[in-house]
Amino acid sequence: MFHLDEYIGLPVSHKASFRKYLQERFIEKVGSLKAVYLINGEANPEQECQRLEKLISQSPVDIALVGIGENGHLAFNDPPADFETSKAYLIVKLDEQCRKQQVNEGWFGSIEEVPMHAISMSVKQIMLSKHIVCTVPGIRKAKAVKNTLERPVWNYYPASILQNHPDCYLFLDNGSASLLKER
Questions:
Q1: Parallel, antiparallel, or unpaired for β 117-121 and 89-93?
Q2: I need a labelling partner for 151 at 20 to 30 A (CA). Which of 45, 68, 131, 180 fits?
């Protein structure tokens, strides 16, 4: 299992740590996995990206479990996302809309508390997965879903790249699907 993204500098004990989230809500519940590679946001970011790149290059990804952010990001690849990099993991700057989403979801008390940077699996690496399952709940993400499905593929709508994957499943609820022409 490879981790998609993590804030840089956020301790694993923080409630917004994705390492903590995955550990408590997935890893502990599924039992033993062959291998788990979590992003250490407290490590040197460049070295952490290199470590993960080496590991993922040896283990093709069968299935990616992803979501879409309110700004249309895929993992933490905020617009304009880099569709071309061959790197598996990137150091990314989080845009204001992404950071506000984290506050609105209750992970942080204010936008000033949200880290400015994260390590994220790249769009190209996600697209190398044999299968992609994308779940997008909530009306707050309706515009991002519309842009993902009804606009041309463009790095200002990062999740729109999913249109190009041969085996991608998108699961929406009534709220996230509310702006689509066809439902």
A1: antiparallel
A2: 131
